[in-house]
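seq:
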Amino acid sequence: MNAQTFNDLIDQINQAAGDVQRERGTLFEKLVLAYLKHEPTY
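struct:
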């Protein structure tokens, strides 16, 4: 399994979204949703 830091994930979001701020927000929301679905605490 490849563990990534939060900053690595944000960098990937920024690269994927380019200059489109709305796309950055959408990808970040998907990241948070995936985290909350898989985090046992929540």
